[in-house]
Amino acid sequence: MRKTALLILPAIFMLGCGQSGVLNKDLTYKAKEKGAPGDVIFSHVYHSKVKKQKCSSCHPKLFKKKYGYNKITMQLIWEGKSCGACHNGQKAFSAKDKNQCVRCHSIK
């Protein structure tokens, strides 16, 4: 019984995330920092389905699975934390490149 539950629970979780859950939604993070170019739109679809990233690539080591729980600032990103763990110019485009701002920020 326990073995069956261990197999079924992850499948239920993934179906929930994949069909109507966060994997099919964009998340909007309101810009709070002074001088920020605009809100950030994060696409789970792009990261998980197009770029083939697994949930475990980010969760829970970089981000908790609760919207609004994680502190995300450009300073932290530039230090290689949160989004900056990948957006460092090696794994993905560099968040330090001012020509790339529009890839995340909806410019005001």
What is the strand and helix layout of this fold?
Elements (H helix, E strand, L loop, with lengths): L1 H18 L6 E4 L10 E4 H7 L4 H4 L15 H5 L30
- Indicate the percent of residues in helices: 25-40%
Rg? 16 Å
CATH class label:
Alpha Beta
Largest sheet: 2 strands, antiparallel
Reported by name, the CATH topology is: Cytochrome C3
Q: Which stretches are poorly predicted, pLDDT < 50 over at least 5 residues?
A: 4-16
Count of separate structural domains:
1
Task: Supply the CATH architecture.
Answer: Alpha-Beta Complex
Number of strands: 2
Describe this protein with a few key phrases.
single chain, 108 residues, mainly alpha, 4 helices, Cytochrome C3, globular
What does this molecule look like?
By secondary structure, the protein is mostly helical. The chain has helices at residues 2-19, 44-50, 55-58, 74-78, and strands at 26-29, 40-43. It has a two-stranded antiparallel sheet with strand order 1-2. The longest helix is centred in the N-terminal third of the chain and has 18 residues, at 2-19. The protein starts with a helix and ends in a 30-residue tail after the last helix.
Give a quick precis of the structure.
With 108 residues, the chain is mainly alpha-helical. The protein contains four helices and two strands. The radius of gyration is 16 Å and the shape is globular.
